[in-house]
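We modelled the chain as a single entity of 175 amino acids. Its sequence is:
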Amino acid sequence: MSKIARIVALALLVGGAAAAQDAPEPDMTLDRLAQIIAAIDPDAEVMGHAFELTLDDIPVLVVTDTVADRMRAMVPIRSVDGMSQDELLRLMQANFDSALDARYAVAQGRLWGVFIHPLSPLQTEQFLSGLAQTVNVAKTYGSAYSGGASVFGGGDSPELYRELLRELLDRSQDI
């Protein structure tokens, strides 16, 4: 079973258990986050308030700031060198409708997939879903630009997908 599949299964298990108990989860702490990360990647490395793990062969860095009550999961995608204005526009469109809770971001000359959330109110299922979406935006960069199976309505991505499909159908008519 892939690590992404394990994350989804763990999220469903945690979500089902929480719903069955009808009790809110305790606040997310650095220790709880470390336990969750160790459960999904036993080889994860802890570096103070940060964690390095691998999900489906994608390196993930999770950084926390307990004083500011923030958490950020990040996946490096590529250098920004050579990115066109059209590609940057496409990333912004995906941030609106198909990246879901993950986002494309630029920092330190790199394009990243990121999931940013306040630490203490973060629920286990939210964290796992955010990790899966962040890995998915990295994996689908250059194609679907998607955090998952859903697309939030009202954006440009569905029409862009339809245009691509029409173009592919037109190209394949001679086959």
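As a brief sanity check on the tokenised model: Helices lie at 3-21, 30-40, 85-97, 124-139, 157-172. Residues 3-21 form the longest helix (19 residues).
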